[in-house]
Structure to design on (399 residues):
């Protein structure tokens, strides 16, 4: 979202909201304070180190090391089709979107292990692309081309897929596990019925509304725009719905692996723009558990936010709860018109000082069976011991 456009929106919406019956429901409470978090099973997360400004080959090798450590590919049979879900919120390059180098490395590895087809697909954010029964405005395909992802993906031998190109009716209903905050079924793309496996490849970044955008939040890219409207309109439970969306049957049964190249981290603002951290020792993070992956990915994001220059810290657009609240109304308006914007619930942005402040993760622990006990392992011997120790401390459940 452009800063100038958002500020104009805030001014305009403030006037209209004063004359409109807007529901002002606070967002998620702090689950750590409201209920104890139950420990879950021990879960491995694999890290591969990669140097600052490393050549493409070194990044590819780090991705391969982490993936081959994280899974034995026993789930993959010769001739299977694998769907790779990147983060394509916009047409911006990595780290606003997923690393093309990382995707190409995973495609190559999947083909070596026996996959007959690898499909890479997503549907972009409503700020850049609109989708309705009447048609589309903008194009996820064009945004992927702008990001630099499409050319690399095609060169790797994978197929491209953009959900809107199949039309409004090419989606099906899926229901999250019982007790969810969703009022209606989630509209998921039919192409997922044609594949045997899903590999999720998010990026490690900040998000102006949700605080961070990692693996769990990447589910938004699957949804038709009527599902996205409910998500943003009923904003008091946005964080809970983020976690619950990952419990739909297709994701529970087909998602095998979560991989993030994080040698670059979008450390402020997000999801499209912000300050990019490039630490001396970058990481590739891989796990079969999206919850465990996100715990480590968020810890890595927070560690890099701490290391940012002071001039980049605590910017108004990055930390303001006011910006998050009005920004969410803006998205609801793009999805459903001004009526939906003015009647939407208020989203309260949560300050993320530790991973235990994240309401998405805190609810994910409940729906996925407890807090994973993170077992960090270096897959290529290039993760400094002090960095591994710090991430272990940041992801250890407080007593």
């Amino acid at each position: 979202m452009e800063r100038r456009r958002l500020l104009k929106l805030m001014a305009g919406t403030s006037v209209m909201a004063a004359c409109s019956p807007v529901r002002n429901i606070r967002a998620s409470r702090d689950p750590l304070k409201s209920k104890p978090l139950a420990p879950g099973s021990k879960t491995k997360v694999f890290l591969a180190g990669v140097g600052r400004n490393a050549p493409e080959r070194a990044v590819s090798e780090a991705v391969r090391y982490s993936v081959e450590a994280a899974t034995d590919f026993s789930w993959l049979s010769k001739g299977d089709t694998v769907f790779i879900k990147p983060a394509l919120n916009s047409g911006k390059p990595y780290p606003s979107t997923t690393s093309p180098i990382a995707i190409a490395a995973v495609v190559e590895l999947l083909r070596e292990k026996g996959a007959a087809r690898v499909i890479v697909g997503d549907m972009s954010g409503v700020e850049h692309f609109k989708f309705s029964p009447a048609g589309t405005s903008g194009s996820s395909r064009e945004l992927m081309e702008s990001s630099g992802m499409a050319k690399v993906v095609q060169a790797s031998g994978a197929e491209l897929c953009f959900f809107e190109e199949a039309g409004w009716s090419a989606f099906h209903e899926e229901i999250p596990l019982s007790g969810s905050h969703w009022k209606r079924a989630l509209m998921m793309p039919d192409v997922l019925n044609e594949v045997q496996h899903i590999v999720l490849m998010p990026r490690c970044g900040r998000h102006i509304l949700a605080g961070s955008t990692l693996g769990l939040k990447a589910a938004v890219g699957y949804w038709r725009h009527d599902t996205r409207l409910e998500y943003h309109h009923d904003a008091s439970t946005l964080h809970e719905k983020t976690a619950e969306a990952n419990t739909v049957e297709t994701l529970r049964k087909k998602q095998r692996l979560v991989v993030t190249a994080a040698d670059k981290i979008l450390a402020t603002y997000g999801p499209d723009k912000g300050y990019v951290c490039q630490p001396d020792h970058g990481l590739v993070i891989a796990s079969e558990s999206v919850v465990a992956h996100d715990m480590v990915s968020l810890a890595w994001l927070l560690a890099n936010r701490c290391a940012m220059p002071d001039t980049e810290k605590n910017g108004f657009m990055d930390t303001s709860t006011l910006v998050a609240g009005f920004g969410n109304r803006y998205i609801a308006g793009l999805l459903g018109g001004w009526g939906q914007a003015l009647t939407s619930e208020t989203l309260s942005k949560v300050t993320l000082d530790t991973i235990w402040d994240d309401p998405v993760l805190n609810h994910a622990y409940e729906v996925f069976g407890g807090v994973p006990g993170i077992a960090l392992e270096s897959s290529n011997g290039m993760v400094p011991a002090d960095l591994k120790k710090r991430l272990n401390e940041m992801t250890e459940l407080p007593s």
User: Anything to note?
Assistant: Confidence is low (pLDDT under 50) at residues 7-33. The two ends are 40 Å apart (CA to CA).
